[in-house]
Amino acid sequence: MLLLGSTYFFRPDFRPAISFAAVFSVQLADWFRNLPAADTIKLDRMFFLVREFVHGRAWVMMSVMQNWQNDLIANHPRLFGDASQGYAECGEGWWDLLERACVRIEAAIGPHDTFETEQIKQKYGTLRWYYAGRLSEAARGAVEEAIDLAEARSACTCETCGAEGRIYDRGGWLTTACTPHARGEPVPIKGGFENLRVVRRLVDGEARIVSCRRYNRIADAFVDVDPASLGMEE
Fold first, then answer.
1. DSSP string for residues in 34-95
2. Arithmetic mean of pLDDT over the chain
């Protein structure tokens, strides 16, 4: 493996797998499917560790590249126009919730709709899914609901193994984990606010609650919650 400038190359004729955009961050770059067999890296997991210094402390950021990400793209080609952008930057424990979201999105988009995943990643311990395309109003609502469900499930699903978990603070790095995979301290949650998803929007110049729902992990669905029951003003 050669280190040339800011990019790792495994062979002179091999496309870059990881690009270091800056000293303080690690970003997953191009990862392509259907490579010639001679160029295929036959490893279950590849770990690239980069130390970054924030406020005088060192953090370690980890990107895990596994075959399941390629399978997700291959199983849902309509959702991933550019495979290098749609390659999921998260742990294998979220594979199932991403698969559920893909199935829901495919069911939502019609023959005249267009959808392309721009990025899937973990941020602040939960899933983020960014996309572009032209969707009907009905399709957009269903797509947003599918992504909301996936993001809500990620907040209570171990990113490593997929078991039920919660968000932990690993010295400033948030991650969702089950008890066996937990590191750091659990992020405290006020009683009654577990798995709560509140959406506020500007109405007549004031931020108002337009949606207050609790995610039910067993049913994989949202349940409406009265904000007043939690002491929140609408």
1. S--GGG----S-EEEEEEEEETTEEEEEEEEE-HHHHHHHHH-GGG-SSHHHH--BS-GGGH
2. 77
